[in-house]
Amino acid sequence: MLVLVGYLVVCGAVFGGYALMGGHFGVLFQPIELLMIGGSALGAFISGNNGKTIKATIKELPLLLRTSKHNRQLYMDLLALLYELLAKARKEGMMKLESDVEAPASSEIFQRYPSIMADHEVMEFLCDYLRLVISGNTDAFEIEALMDHEIETIRHEAEVPSHSLTRVADALPALGIVAAVLGVVHALASADLPPSEMGALIAHAMVGTFLGVLMAYGFVAPLATVIEQKVEEGMKVYQCAKVTLLASLNGYAPQLAVEFGRKVLFSSERPTFTELDAHVRGVKAR
After folding, report:
1. Contacts of 85 (CB under 8 A, 6+ apart)
2. Are 269 and 72 within 8 A, CB to CB?
3. Low-confidence ranges of the chain (pLDDT < 50)
4. Is the pTM value of this prediction over 0.70?
5. pLDDT tens digit sequence for 196-211
6. Residues 279-285: contacts with CB within 8 Å, 24+ apart?
7. Burial of 146 (0-12, 13-18, 19+ CB in 10 A)
8. Domain spans in the chain, listed from the N-terminal domain onward
9. Which pLDDT does position 245 carry in this prediction?
10. Residue 216 · residue 174 · CB < 8 Å
11. Which pLDDT tens digit goes with each residue over 109-119?
């Protein structure tokens, strides 16, 4: 939603300022130049990326209009889920978690946290490393190194749409210049026209440069920035799970292990110690 608000502010500032200086909006209405710039940018995007990148970018764009799911409640649910799993393992033994990990959809513990189960990537991450812990043949340092590699791979894949949109934003000003040059060529080819008509053709041509720069830095580049921010938020889920599991592997009690996980969260979403403790106590009471 904030993306649309930002777009309205950009348009209001640019076109409002143009109106205040006495500009005529009819001059800016150049659908052919908009078609040239937008079409060439789309063609460059298609030719410069593989099918996987194109699909990932198209899939990501509608999600930018939604409110972020990575809020305080999600992290409290994640930490409470980890606490329940680790507390069960500490009380009954790691092997007792095998049924929960192998069939999380039928696990009473996992079913209490639908927000976590809805994220298939996070569920796969959790279950995979819980299986390694249950096997008992892995070292904490080895698991940490493996987690770091996987989180880096997840981050790289999640950043692909951002990188592709950044390249499009970088190309748009140059494509605007291309449209402007073609407009100037058209104007010079009509040199026998009266000065008033020639001036109008030159003005129309210059609109191409304006549109290219506005589309690049007012519309496309902000989308790439928003995706980068969403990626950073998404990585905190994996980092929180990683730190909590490693703390448990190193011998810390479940209540302390989730405190380790709480500390890696951003301050805007991080629950306080009291909030998390109350939430965990509520879990224990259930």
Report:
1. 97, 100, 109, 130
2. yes
3. none
4. yes
5. 777 777 878 888 888 9
6. 279/76, 279/79, 279/80, 280/79, 280/80, 280/83, 280/255, 283/80, 283/83, 283/84, 284/87
7. middle
8. 30-286
9. 92
10. no
11. 898 888 899 98
Q: If you search the block for the tokens 């930490």, which residue do you land on? A: 79
Contact 175, 212 (CB under 8 A): yes
Looking at residue 284, its pLDDT comes to 65
Based on the number of CB atoms within 10 Å of its own CB, is 113 exposed (0-12), middle (13-18) or buried (19 or more)? Answer: buried
Q: Which two tokens stand for residue 144?
A: 């940490």
Q: If you write DSSP's letter for every residue of the chain in order, what string do you get?
A: -HHHHHHHHHHHHHHHHHHHTT--HHHH--HHHHHHHHHHHHHHHHHTS-HHHHHHHHHHGGGGGSPPS-SHHHHHHHHHHHHHHHHHHHHH-GGGGHHHHH-GGG-HHHHT-HHHHT-HHHHHHHHHHHHHHHH----HHHHHHHHHHHHHHHHHHHTHHHHHHHHHHHHHHHHHHHHHHHHHHHHHTTTTS-HHHHHHHHHHHHHHHHHHHHHIIIIIHHHHHHHHHHHHHHHHHHHHHHHHHHHHHTT--HHHHHHHHHHTS-TTTPPPHHHHHHHHHHHHH-
The amino acid at residue 161 is P
For 8, 18, 19, 223, the CA distances from 5, given in Å and listed in that order, are 5, 20, 20, 13
Token pair recorded at residue 254: 């479940």
pLDDT digits (tens, 9 = 90+) for 17-66: 888 888 788 778 888 888 999 999 999 999 999 999 999 999 998 888 88
Q: Taking the CA atoms of the chain, what radius of gyration do you get in angstroms?
A: 27
Alpha-carbon distance 89 to 134, whole Å? 9
